[in-house]
């Protein structure tokens, strides 16, 4: 595997991209919604590398090496020598299509040699929990990582990149095949839960209507106080920690939208009736420690094999809390995985991956999910 990572700036992207020097067959593009010339960049890549697969998505911040930027494209060119791959994509009408879309994508990629699936999804019209469940129902023993596209903190419109097209309401999946690929993953948060447990008394998948028999939106507004006027973006600072039962690990859920008419709150993942939730708050040091733990989990399995590439998917809510310290969570990843791997990634509306090597894949919020790749 040969990897080259470039951060494209709006004013001189053509000069930046001209330094590409490898025969890449895959391009990953994490793109700011405010990058004006994104279509021109795609046309350049598809014309110069007509046989390459180009995928990507919109972001709430682009990760390039140890920097976090806005209004750029984090471009990663990948040359695979021994590992084969296949891209699948599907359009969705609304969130109700999420489970079946996951199944259809998995069926398209399924093969006894399938090693890993990287998923990039529309961030506003897809239920991440249902998408992951659909994928796992067909390929339960295949590792899956990725994330939901973002639009800064605007929650207005996200997109994915499918070769030469910029499209919304679409899910992309890239399957990797063969024993020559080594993939390791890790996901950690670092948020602290507090307050009382609240019972989910009425919900429909990822739409929460009532907590303890009271309207969910009213509870959120009372909790946020003055910040309630900035919902849904202000809700990213106070996600929910959810447990389905006494034996399950907590999952974090963040807001995507609110509905004033029925007092409901829509999340990136499901909150089933009967689950218990707690509000969470951030501690900057704990968030950075969470990123370090995620990198340790993703790197420890490799042992002597140093990865060539690390893809970081971190939550927009983490960035809002860390503010000017946001690059510290990327720097600690570099310290753990070493100088060799290229680092790319984006800030998302939802992170897809297992908690560690022995956990199933889940839809997370407010985490740093890391996937490392090595070809041997």
What does this structure look like?
By secondary structure, this protein is an alpha+beta fold. The protein is 22% helix and 40% strand. The strands form four sheets. Strands 14, 15, 16, 17, 18, 19, 20 and 21 form an eight-stranded antiparallel sheet that branches. A six-stranded mixed sheet has the order 1-6-2-3-10-11. The N and C termini lie close together (8 Å).
Search tags:
six-stranded mixed sheet, eight-stranded antiparallel sheet, 376 residues, alpha+beta
At a glance:
Helix content is 22%, strand content 40%. The protein is of the alpha+beta class and 376 residues long.
Provide the fold topology.
Layout: E1 2-9, H1 13-17, E2 26-31, H2 38-48, E3 53-58, E4 62-64, E5 67-69, E6 72-79, E7 84-91, H3 98-109, E8 114-121, H4 128-138, E9 143-148, E10 160-162, E11 165-167, E12 170-177, E13 181-188, E14 192-204, E15 207-211, E16 214-215, H5 216-224, E17 240-243, E18 251-253, E19 255-259, E20 264-267, E21 276-281, H6 284-300, E22 309-315, H7 316-322, H8 327-337, E23 342-348, E24 350-354, E25 361-364, E26 368-375
Parallel strand pairs: 2-3, 8-9, 22-23
Antiparallel strand pairs: 1-6, 2-6, 3-10, 4-5, 4-23, 7-12, 8-12, 9-24, 10-11, 13-26, 14-15, 14-21, 15-16, 15-20, 17-18, 17-21, 19-20, 22-26, 24-25
Helix pairs in contact: 3-4, 6-8
